[in-house]
Amino acid sequence: xxxxxxxxxxxxxxxxxxxxxxxxxxxxxxxxxxxxxxxxxxxxxxxxxxxxxxxxxxxxxxxxxxxxxxxxxxxxxxxxxxxxxxxxxxxxxxxxxxxxxxxxxxxxxxxxxxxxxxxxxxxxxxxxxxxxxxxxxxxxxxxxxxxxxxxxxxxxxxxxxxxxxxxxxxxxxxxxxxxxxxxxxxxxxxxxxxxxxxxxxxxxxxxxxxxxxxxxxxxxxxxxxxxxxxxxxxxxxxxxxxxxxxxxxxxxxxxxxxxx
Amino acid sequence: xxxxxxxxxxxxxxxxxxxxxxxxxxxxxxxxxxxxxxxxxxxxxxxxxxxxxxxxxxxxxxxxxxxxxxxxxxxxxxxxxxxxxxxxxxxxxxxxxxxxxxxxxxxxxxxxxxxxxxxxxxxxxxxxxxxxxxxxxxxxxxxxxxxxxxxxxxxxxxxxxxxxxxxxxxxxxxxxxxxxxxxxxxxxxxxxxxxxxxxxxxxxxxxxxxxxxxxxxxxxxxxxxxxxxxxxxxxxxxxxxxxxxxxxxxxxxxxxxxxxxxxxxxxxxxxxxxxxxxxxxxxxxxxxxxxxxxxxxxxxxxxxxxxxxxxxxxxxxxxxxxxxxxxxxxxxxxxxxxxxxxxxxxxxxxxxxxxxxxxxxxxxxxxxxxxxxxxxxxxxxxxxx
Lengths: 260, 385
Ligand SMILES: Cc1cc2nc3c(=O)[nH]c(=O)nc-3n(C[C@H](O)[C@H](O)[C@H](O)COP(=O)(O)OP(=O)(O)OC[C@H]3O[C@@H](n4cnc5c(N)ncnc54)[C@H](O)[C@@H]3O)c2cc1C
Known about the structure:
Chain B: This is Acyl-CoA dehydrogenase fadE12. Chain B: InterPro entries: Acyl-CoA_dehydrogenase, Acyl-CoA_Oxase/DH_mid-dom, Acyl-CoA_Oxase/DH_mid-dom_sf, AcylCo_DH-like_C, AcylCo_DH/oxidase_C, AcylCoA_DH/ox_N, AcylCoA_DH/ox_N_sf, AcylCoA_DH/oxidase_NM_dom_sf. Chain B: Its cofactor is FAD. The complex is a heterodimer of chains A (260) and B (385). Chain A has 260 residues and is an alpha/beta fold. Helices cover 26% and strands 25% of the residues of chain A. Chain A is built from six helices and eleven strands. Chain A has helices at 37-53, 68-77, 95-107, 129-137, 190-196, 246-256; strands spanning 2-7, 9-11, 33-35, 56-62, 81-85, 114-118, 141-150, 154-161, 164-171, 174-178, 201-204. The longest helix of chain A has 17 residues, at 37-53. Chain A starts with a strand and ends with a helix. Chain B is globular and about 80 Å long. The two termini of chain B are 38 Å apart. The structure holds flavin-adenine dinucleotide.
């Protein structure tokens, strides 16, 4: 069974994140970059499926050269190989262009059975890319999975949304996006860390995946960020000291905020 | 030589730090105060291969060096949950067995030490032979093929979690009758071997014990390495020990410094955060500098050791341990001061580090003995003892 995991390098949630003033794209230099935690879970799920069914796990990543570090992390966890689409022309690509690039990169691989992605990245949080990739591939999409089962022929998930939990099934090939509840990702073992460097990573340009430079990137993006403003600083909360009246004061506060 | 760590070392550092953060200081203290152990963390680190990174690959280790092993310990320490037994089990005992053991001894012990399923304590200190290892009296005599070991050890860490202990004893030279050191592996269930806990004021899940060997009969292959080269073999294990002790101390210093810095950034007593006052910011900055210097010396010692320079590593390892012990003591002390009253509370978890932070000044070798070593060896000064 050949499994592809879509991975993204994102600024560490704990570090300060900024958009660049010039073009409202992510200022990648301002923050520590890490493999998105949701992608660690996607990799974990792929490894579990591989351990049960056999096969290979390939990570596919679109991102600048530095995203190599995120790829190594996925390889050190146990993925077998990687495809890294890295091209200056991709800078500022929006969700649609990203999905096109990823779908094209998946297209360069032979006989993929299952694509696993995180449901949304912790930086962009559009949550649209997995569905778009599935659409472009013409494959069924099973999104928001909190549980995944596959026998190598079909895949079944528990889909959790605000509306409730549904069991969704599809024949392979298919795409699944996973939520935080799916699993606890493993730590890379020392052997995994040492092996990661020797695993094959093919770096592809936009042209290598069969797209042209004017189809991707900020200039031709169908969506545009017109303006952006930093989030307002957190205001100090209200401290209620309980001198017998604490409960009442909390209720008053909550009703003042129209929360109860 | 490079001041940049290899990609693999950095990845190991990050992974060990993440693992450590999942357990953290609260877990560590809870285990310490409830009489528990850090077994879950030990086992998980072992399974991931972090405990045996320095041991040979053919025996289940990671095939890297003390540089890598000390990185793991430093990161666990920085996360608030240092594993003291890493200093002893893979670093001292694992090194000695890997370098001087027979094939059978390596088969018997190394895979377990590497994945953490076996733990080996290390016993050299005796009631009358702490700083002065020449006064060791634990003795092994030949009886047919067997050895019979008698004697007493004190302050031995982790015997309660260990499967065996490597004991530094002495054997009688058949020719001259003089006693010379030799290393024996004694299983904890060996008849005639007993131990008793020592009440310590360290807040640590790793406890210390007095050991009693009363005519403990051991098979011939309990002796590790050659009977005639015991001292040399012992020293081979002591460099890793010092490098690991340094890493544990710098990890502790980082943990304390992080807590102090986080606190002084938030806390305002007048209008600015207290971290703006030079009375607090300068001592913390000094500690940061001393910490980086200690880490650098630790890395140098590990680099020399891993490149096969035992002698060069010896001086660097001693200096690293000195510097690391000083900065861990000072960092915790300054953390307590920076937190004011909260520095002495249970909740903020700084006061509880005070005794443990001083440990590195005393063990595995005292600060004074390191100064003696440097005075005599690096400066050529005469000995007072
Ligand atoms: C928590 C803990 C864990 C330990 N774990 C282990 C273990 O696992 N295995 C093990 O074998 N040992 C262990 N030890 C023992 C430790 O290595 C010794 O305590 C240490 O070597 C000091 O020996 P001592 O306690 O006998 O002090 P002493 O030798 O009695 O020294 C007392 C003081 O006198 C000073 N002093 C002595 N001689 C001189 C001199 N010539 N010049 C200047 N000053 C001098 C010393 O520096 C020290 O300050 C542990 C100790 C502790 C506290």
